[in-house]
Amino acid sequence: MTTPGAFVAQVFSPMARELRRYLEGELARPDREKVPVPAPVPASDRTVSVDHNSKDYLDADAAMERLETALREANDFPDVLEREQREAEVSAARRLLRATLVRLEPLAVLLKPILVVYATKVKDGIVAHAATATVTALIALIGALAPLFKTMLGL
User: Fold this and answer.
1) Closest listed residue to residue 118, CA positions, set 149, 87, 81
2) Which residues contact 134 (CB under 8 A, 6 or more apart)?
3) What proportion of the chain, given as a percentage, has pLDDT over 70?
4) Distance (Å, rounded) from C-alpha 48 to C-alpha 142?
5) What is the pLDDT confidence band of residue 9, given thresholds at 50, 70 and 90?
6) In 20-136, beta strands by DSSP E
7) Nearest by Cα to 134 from 116, 148, 152
8) Residues 49, 51: Cα–Cα separation, whole Å
9) Are 100 and 57 in contact (CB under 8 A)?
């Protein structure tokens, strides 16, 4: 009967040595075709650095403020309690953007209910125009991670 250590020494160690030699030889070959490395897929908790002095930040904050005001003043909002909730969510999103580093996931979770409904489905009204302007401004602010943010919003 062989011991597990003897089995590893006889079977796996020689295979590991041969595999290491093969891989090192393949990597050292000058004629080896370079395989392009795909760009990393951003994680859903990706953070964005916010420059509070930039025009994009000022535009995004102003757009969110207009959205908040439009929600507060909308007469045609079907449910008063839902309107208060959406207004609070936009306010919380504005508060998140005051930080230097912002995680996209919480921002998208807060804004998705209002932005998706009003920017894509309800095309008329003050809230719809403010929601569309907010989406545009946030995408400009986020920059390179805008496709990820749009996916998180379901746009």
Assistant:
1) 87
2) 60, 63, 64, 66, 67, 111, 115, 119
3) 83
4) 7
5) confident
6) 47-49, 101-103
7) 116
8) 7
9) no
Q: Is 2 helix (H, G, I), strand (E, B) or coil?
A: coil
Tokens for 132?
């569309």
**Angular region, 151: left φ>0, alpha ψ -120 to 50, beta rest:** alpha
Among residues 56, 64, 67, the alpha carbon closest in space to that of 141 is found at 56
Question: What's the token pair of residue 58?
Answer: 């000022």
> Measured between alpha carbons, how far is 15 from 20 in angstroms, rounded to an integer?
9
Amino acid at 132: T
In angstroms, rounded to a whole number, what is the distance separating the alpha carbons of residues 109 and 111? 6
> pTM score, two decimals?
0.65
